[in-house]
Amino acid sequence: MPLTPLDIHNKEFNRGFRGYDEDEVNEFLDQVIKDYELVMRDKKELEGRVSELTDRLGHFTNIEETLNKSILIAQEAAEDVKRNAEKEAKLIIKEAEKMRTVLLMKHCLSLVKLRWTLRRRKSSLKYLEHVSKC
Question: What is the pTM of this model?
Answer without folding.
Answer: 0.52
